[in-house]
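Write out this protein's structure.
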Amino acid sequence: MKKAQSASSPAKSEMPSSKRCRPADSPGTTSPAGKDIADILESIDKRLSIFDARLSLVEILHREFKSLRESLEFSQQQVETLAAENATLRESRGEDVETTVKSFIKTHLKLPEDTVKNIAFDRVHRIGPMRAATGRPRPIVAKFGHFKQKEQVKSRGRELKGTDFSVNDQFPKEILERRRVLFPIRRGFIQKGSRAVIAVDRLYVDGQLYRDPGITPWLY
């Protein structure tokens, strides 16, 4: 007699699935899309660095060009000045201008005679067109042979206060225009009791360089 078969068949054992789940991206790994973005950003950064370097070079070249242009303009002005000086020298042969200057330094600037005798000039002459004898005398330009002697004469300029005379440096047109802007500003500070001095084309107030946002940058 056959054994009775069990009414309930044994449950099939579950077998592990052969289908694998895709592991999540682990920290520190970069997906292909992320790597492309990083490469693009790095390329942009490199290009920006190159652009900054080129921009700096352009700024340097611009400053050098501006300086060269000013130098050429000043040289041209010097050539024109020398041409005018030569013409003036031909017209002033009857006057010993150097003697006139030394007499002025002794009489009006009150420097000792021995000091005046030792002053050396490279050239001395009058500038500007000839004027009538009754007109105002033409200015005199004197190029000193020694810088210290020039500064010594300039330091005596206070002796000319209240007179029709003055002693000043000869500057290019551009610097004269800058000084013309600064003179009224300097006068205002002096009236307020501050010590204001113009050195070439810079204004110093109580020892500090004066900067005014209302003045064009080329003054600095």
